[in-house]
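User: My collaborator sent over this chain with a note saying "see what the structure looks like." That's all I know about it. Can you take a look?
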Amino acid sequence: LGGRGGSLPELRTIRDSSEIFSLHPQKDAEVMSLIDRVGKEGDTLGGVVEVRVDGLPIGLGTHAQWDRKLDGRLAQAVMAVQAIKGVEIGMGFEAARRRGSEVHDPIHFDPAQRDGTQLGFTRPTNNAGGLEAGMTNGQPLVVRAAMKPISTLRKPLESVNLRTKQPEEAAYERSDVCAVSAASVIVENVVAFEVAAALVDKFGADSVEEMRGRWALYHDMARDR
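Assistant: Without extra context I'll predict from the sequence alone. Here is the result:
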C-alpha cells in the first residue's frame, strides 16, 4: 500500500488518519478484514515499513570507513529491530533484477536550484534512495524494512520437545495477528536516531542552534566550491 508521493507533512497527516498507519486509508477496511480472516485461521501476517527523511545535506556518512558508512549504519540498526528480516535502501532488491541503465540515477545541473539540498545537482529519479557510496546525496532518504509474520501461531507448527527429543507442537502463549503498524513507529525512530547521530558526527556542536549554524556554513561552502 505504498507508492504514494507528496510532502512529508502531507504524508504524515494521511498516515495518522489511518487505523493501520497506511498511506491509503481508503484501503483500511480491506486490510483489517484480511487481518481478521487470517487471525481466525490461526495464522499471522508480516509486511513492509517505509521511512522517508527529507531535507538532509549532502555528505552525511562516509565512503572511506566501512563501519561509518550511513547505509551500513542504517541497515544494522533497522535489522536489529525484533522480527525485521530484510532492509533495503531506495530501489533495494529490485535493483538486482534490472539493468544498470534502469537503476542508476542520471545527474543534471540546474543553477536555479543551487541553494537547495542538492546544490543544483538534480536527479529525475531517486533509485539510490538518497544514499550513494555510504553518504547522503541531498535527495530524500528512503529506507524499507521487511517484518516477518509473528511466530506464535494459534495453529501451532511442528516442533520438538528439548527434553524428550520427541515431536511436539509448538506452545501457544498469545499473539497479535499483524504488528507491522507498531513496527513502523519503531523503525521510524531507529532511522531518526541514526540520522541524528550522523548529523552530530558531521557538525558536532553543543546545541541545536549551534548545529544549525554549522550546517548553514557547510552548505554555503559546498555550494560555492
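A starting point for your reply to your collaborator: The mean pLDDT is 92.
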